[in-house]
Write a structure and sequence with these properties.
This protein is mostly helical. It is built from three helices and no strands.
Length: about 90
């Protein structure tokens, strides 16, 4: 192969890398957006329960434990994390 063909392949390969990186970036932004929406919605749900006095702080701890027990693969829902979601919502 001559050097022009190698350079051409390198340029084309770089274009493929750019396509991959663009889509990875879009995917990360979509995941971040959904994560924020989830935290907002969980925070809103819990906030409404706390404000209506339907739930107390012990129920938030029970919720955290329930999530851990029922869905052990879900991470980030400790009592303090749930309260952080409430603060985010409020």
């Amino acid at each position: 192969m001559d050097s022009n063909m190698i350079l051409s392949h390198e340029q084309q390969f770089d274009e493929v890398i750019n396509i991959i990186l663009q889509h990875q970036s879009r995917a990360s932004r979509a995941v971040n957006k959904e994560t924020l929406l989830m935290a907002w919605n969980v925070g809103g749900y819990v906030s409404n329960k706390l404000k209506s006095e339907e739930w107390g702080s012990k129920v938030v701890a029970q919720l955290s434990e329930y999530i851990r027990t029922k869905q052990p693969k879900l991470k980030g829902y400790s009592r303090s994390s749930v309260y952080n979601m409430v603060l985010f919502y409020e």
